[in-house]
Amino acid sequence: MRDHLLNFLNKYKYHFLIWLAYFNYEIAASWLVFDKVPAIEINLYIFIFYIPLFYFHANVLLKYILESSNKVLRYSLAFWVLIELMLYVSIKYQCDLIFFKYADPSVLDGYNFNLTNLSNMIYRFIYFTCYSTGYYFLIRTRNQRQLVEEMEQQELKDQIREKEIKNELVLTQNAFLRSQINPDFLISTLDYLYHKTLSSAPKAAESILSLSDIMQYALSKEASTGFVKLDKEISLIENFLLLHQARQVQKAQLKFSYNHESLSIKFIPLVLMTLTENILKHGRLDDPKKPAEIKITYENSMLRIQTSNRQAINSNIPSHGIGLKNIKERLLLAYGNKVIFNYHLDSKFYFHTVIEVQI
Fold it and tell me: Against a cut of 0.70, is the pTM above it?
């Protein structure tokens, strides 16, 4: 309650200050003109009517009528102002009768209420509604200016975004053109090299065959679609690991396992590749007793992909950031709230990732 009050006072502090200044101005003007300061109680009583009239006229009557889409209502503004005047005079007159009847006569010495005060009521009504009308148009002009500025800023953002999209399109087109190296020529060349080296260098031939399978899958239309069967992704990882092991002097200690049920499940492509690359790049894979692990299972409509590896010396979690962020965004885009993706570094410096998808 206190916070709401403080927020209200802070929001309308200038309103309070202006009304306070005007209240003092009225007292000073009465003193200068009539050489007499009216009772504070009378001024407070009168301002009880002026302030609501001011805000009602601006924030209710003018706002509702002038911003209405009904033309008849807008053209009838003068009629509604007249109704407002009649209500104001009626309420003010009745309240004056009650106030002057029960007020202390000594406080009201020299002040007589009669019907001649009607002209003063009308004058005061016109006086404050004119100020209120000016206030309404001032606020409306400010709001319209803010709206124009916001629209200009939004237009600028849209232009910047449009330029970014065009730049991305150019980059995509360039990437597409670079990818137009004849895939048949590339696969045929790798196949030729495989057969040429099979008899003289069987290990090299095996690496060429693994590379050929990887390139054939990467360049296929299947890999560019939204979902592929996991058996294709698993074959890709197996070929990738064979190729990686062939390049290493010391064999990387990594266990890769999956159950039969997972092979036919469709999943977004190249997620497994990113996880595997992270393990090979950032994992410590030299201890046969503490191998890294990639495990894929599908049970009870739940696909679960788990990885774990010891963190390499002088490596830290942020080094995984870009690849893992990309995986998270793709998973959320493909599966929404059906997917859970978590990763963390435990107290034994093992880095874990877990993907769970309800399929």
Answer: no
